[in-house]
Amino acid sequence: MLRYIVVVCSLLLGSQTALAYSTAQSSSSLIKSSNLSTRAVEGSQQTQLALLSPEQRQAKRLRRQEKRRLKAKQRELRRQEQKSLRVQNDNRHYQTRTTSNKKKKKVASKPKRAPFVNKFPQSRPATGSRVFVFDPSITQWGAYDAEGNLVKSGRASGGRAYCPDIKSACRTPAGQYSVYRRGSASCKSKKFPIGRGGAPMPYCTFFKGGYAIHGSYHVPDYNASHGCIRVEPHMAKWLSENFLYHGTSVVVKSYK
What we know:
Blueprint: H1 2-51, H2 54-108, E1 131-135, E2 140-144, E3 150-157, E4 175-178, E5 181-182, E6 205-208, E7 211-215, E8 229-231, H3 233-242, E9 249-252
Parallel strand pairs: 1-9, 7-8
Antiparallel strand pairs: 1-2, 2-3, 3-8, 4-9, 5-6, 6-7
């Protein structure tokens, strides 16, 4: 029995060795065949080159060199195109960001107003007393001393042609008047806004009924009030403290 087992094992080992040997033989034969085919190709190429004349070989080399140059040129062109595209994208991004910043600045910043230019004459006929003149056609006021010399002038806004909230015209009435009542910096309207009042009228100076000269933070270059004469707050303070006293003449010119 032991002899039989030994014989079987030797047979199995022999078959495995034979299989490994056959595999190695086949792989070496494949390598040899591939080497032979490569040598055959190289030999055929060399044979073809040998059959060519020197001029033909030189022309073939030149064609190969030209192909290489063309490929290199194409690669360089592709690199340049990619670079220019990157630059364009960067510029577009920068322009978009700059434009957005400019838009933000425009939205945030207030529109600049043109500097004030006086349109009143430097003198008028002397009356022996101070005169405050408002001209709604140029939306300016002028303060003249007793000798008729212009002391100071500034922006002003009178009553507009029509006020929707009171459904009637509300222009400042033209004529010559006198100051009869003065208020402080805390002066407020008893009528406007309609129904509740309380609109600020700092340094209010009344010259006819409810019509007054007073300070306002909204003094546009057009007539926009309900009939009062709006002036800039610092000018209203100056007028109240230095010019407009009880009895001072107030002249309102007509709308042209």
